[in-house]
From TrEMBL:
Descriptive protein name: CbtA family protein
Keyword DNA-binding attached: no
Pfam families in the record: CbtA (PF09490)
Organism: Terrabacter carboxydivorans
Coiled coil: none
TM regions (residue ranges): 12-31, 73-96, 108-128, 148-167, 179-201, 221-242
Keywords recorded for this protein, A-Z: Membrane, Transmembrane, Transmembrane helix
Keyword Membrane: yes
InterPro entries reported for this sequence: CbtA_put
Amino acid sequence: MGLSFGSVLRRGVLAGVLAGLAAALVIWLVVEPVIRRALVIEDRRSMHGGQSAPSGLLAHGGDEPLVSRAAQVVGGAVTSVVVGVAVGVIFAVVFAKVRDRLPGRGDFGRSLALASIGFAAVSLLPALKIPANPPAVGDPSTVGRRTMLYAVVLLLGVAAAVTVPQLDRHLGRRGMRSSTRWALDIAVVVVLIGLVAALVPGTPDQVPADVPADLVWDFRLASLAQLAALWLTLGVTFGLLLERDGRRSPLGERAGAGARVPA
């Protein structure tokens, strides 16, 4: 007896909530201290009339922020949970559709495999091409261009994540050995990443001279750690929920057309 599609979705929501909370915890412990270091630089610019900042980065001359930093942190945590739920729902739907084609031993291994693919395609590739910058870096006039470039890289990453498995199945149907297929899969991934790196323009923002390089890299690594925490928690929690129910009832053979999916 397998789990209903609704049951799998509920597990995706629960895993998404926990993943969002894990990401919020990383924001609070790892990302927030780096942001506060960047805000010190912005305050210093404000005290000097914004003279050390490049065009477009001038501070607002000592004005009080409309929203306190504490409120921003709480809002960020809530947003993280909401995003986690949304990602968890999508994760559950995709898992139900491609479960039989995912590598890994058992549903726990398959869940981790899907989470790894999601992290690489949706988070890691865009972060490498259009890296995150702390508050003291970035021209407000380039927000639209940065967002567009990030979305393009994200979509290309998703396209690669869909294309490579289809290629692998096609080669498998033609009788190609697994080792050869894996080698070709890796080669295709490398080529696709190389094309993204070469053809998609990089971030249009320059790091101002008054921002230390270690601050920029600390923020980028912290932001990547936040995303990694979300995907890791999602993959582990979702897999554990399925494995727990799988031990209590026999696994279904295959997900139907949205009716029932394996436990």
